[in-house]
Amino acid sequence: MEKNRRGELYELAIPSIEDIDHEVSADLGDFLGLPQMAAEYERIRQLLAPGAK
Q1: Nearest CA among 37, 40, 43 for reference residue 29
Q2: pTM over 0.70, yes/no
Q3: Three-class SS state of 25
Q4: 40, exposed or middle or buried, with CB in 10 Å at 0-12, 13-18, 19+?
Q5: Please, what's the b/e burial string for 4-22 (b: 16 or more CB within 10 A of its CB; e: otherwise)?
Q6: Sign of the C-alpha dihedral, residues 28, 37, 13, 3?
Q7: What is the DSSP letter of 51?
Q8: pLDDT at residue 1, rounded to an integer
Q9: 3-state class of 1 per DSSP?
Q10: pLDDT tens digits, residue range 1-48?
Q11: CA-CA distance, 26 to 32, in Å (whole number)?
């Protein structure tokens, strides 16, 4: 069951990162270079962590 939900989270995470990507510009070699991108990545990483609610 958890894997099914994790797949759903991945599907939600990708558009979230894409939304932030359109709002800020960053060097393609370092997509986490700007604080907004790093914060969104961290938020998603925590949601996808084992045991996250």
Answers
A1: 37
A2: no
A3: coil
A4: buried
A5: eeeeeeeeebeeeeeebee
A6: positive
A7: T
A8: 45
A9: coil
A10: 455 677 887 888 888 877 776 666 656 567 677 788 888 888 888 888
A11: 8
